[in-house]
Amino acid sequence: MGSVADLELAGVRKAFADTVALDGVTLDIAEGEFFTLVGPSGCGKTTTLRTIAGLESPTEGTVRFGGADVAGVPTEERDVGIVFQNYALFPHMSVRENVAYGLKFADPPDGQSVDERVTDLLDLVDLSGMGDREPDQLSGGQQQRVALARALAPAPDVLLLDEPMSALDARLRETLRRQVKRIQTELGVTTVYVTHDQAEALAISDRLAVMSDGAVEQVGTPREVYERPATEFVASFVGENNLFRGEVVGRDGDGTAVSVDGTEFRIDDGSGDRPGGANDRLTFCVRPEDLRVGADANRFEVAVDTAEFLGETTRYYAEWGDRTVVFRTPDAHDGDALSLGFDPGDARVL
Ligand code: ATP
């Protein structure tokens, strides 16, 4: 394969007997990008990754590496490094031998010897000095770094990571996430990362694709996806959100008046999107941090149900009529009746 490492999936469909795992997935992943596939269990993330790797072949559609169709090109000729959830290290081999195994089917780059390459990689993943240990003498995070070093050994064009941190505890996950990101940035290797953890996806990615039911709901930078969710699914899956369903009752300037069960809200999401006319149904969302206690605009009265102290903020669940809203604020609120409101510009039309 060439060294141009942009990836393209065009209309990829994958069916297993009567299960449609992927239903027309189209993605453009740029060279050097850290790209994440995120979505709930069963949405097709792993199948997408395995299709890129050549471990599955699409029922329909095309996968291209550097513009070239890779149909029929076996995994070992695709120049991909793969790290799976369960480390898959060889238990009776030392760390050095495990990393060197990554060079079994490919020579080290730049005319290096296997020994030199392994030393460099252990240095890269901060495991110098642990080369003679066996995997069971390492922590989970260290084992996963060995797996990463092994995948990177032949200097692949593309690095594929399938839930590599899901077996680790929360603190270790955050540490490893920073290390993976640093290594990826240092090497500039095109990376596709699979996770069901939306917070991890926001933290680590240059761009992400949010998937649901075998389809891509939205592709964007973490900020775009968080601030401008394209669909109700994305609005609810990525971060927390409050969804309001109502009907349009009027317009003025750039704003839209929406009635939600008799309460009128004015929203102006600045997107220039002026959905429908009077009486049209409309759904908008407001993030928990944008619902403010005592705000003047878009006031509504709620009854606080539960409070969760999170450290820098407290998350409150409150009843508004027969629905639950969630809001977050650094301030303590003791009473159970509160007036909430939000800026028209903080509402996002879905
Ligand atoms: P998870 O986070 O649980 O790993 P995922 O998003 O990675 O989920 P996939 O593993 O890609 O999802 O699976 C997508 C769908 O395809 C699921 O309904 C799954 O049951 C089905 N599927 C995946 N692999 C196979 C297979 N080999 N045979 C039959 N069905 C499969």
Automatic annotation (TrEMBL):
SMART domains: AAA. It is a peripheral membrane protein. It catalyses: tungstate(in) + ATP + H2O = tungstate(out) + ADP + phosphate + H(+). It is an enzyme of class 7 (translocase). GO terms for molecular function: ABC-type tungstate transporter activity; ATP binding; ATP hydrolysis activity. InterPro entries: AAA+_ATPase, ABC_SmlMolc_Importer, ABC_transporter-like_ATP-bd, ABC_transporter-like_CS, Mo/tungstate-bd_C_term_dom, NA-bd_OB-fold, P-loop_NTPase, Transp-assoc_OB_typ2. Gene3D superfamilies: 2.40.50.100, Nucleic acid-binding proteins, P-loop containing nucleotide triphosphate hydrolases. It is found in: Cell membrane. Keywords: ATP-binding, Molybdenum, Nucleotide-binding, Transport. Its main location: membrane. Signal peptide: none annotated. One of its GO terms (cellular component) is ATP-binding cassette (ABC) transporter complex. Residues 7-238 form the ABC transporter domain. Its EC number is 7.3.2.6. Part of the ABC transporter complex WtpABC involved in molybdate/tungstate import. Responsible for energy coupling to the transport system. The complex is composed of two ATP-binding proteins (WtpC), two transmembrane proteins (WtpB) and a solute-binding protein (WtpA). Belongs to the ABC transporter superfamily. Sulfate/tungstate importer (TC 3.A.1.6) family. This is Molybdate/tungstate import ATP-binding protein WtpC. It comes from Halosimplex carlsbadense 2-9-1. The lineage of its organism: Archaea, Methanobacteriati, Methanobacteriota, Stenosarchaea group, Halobacteria.
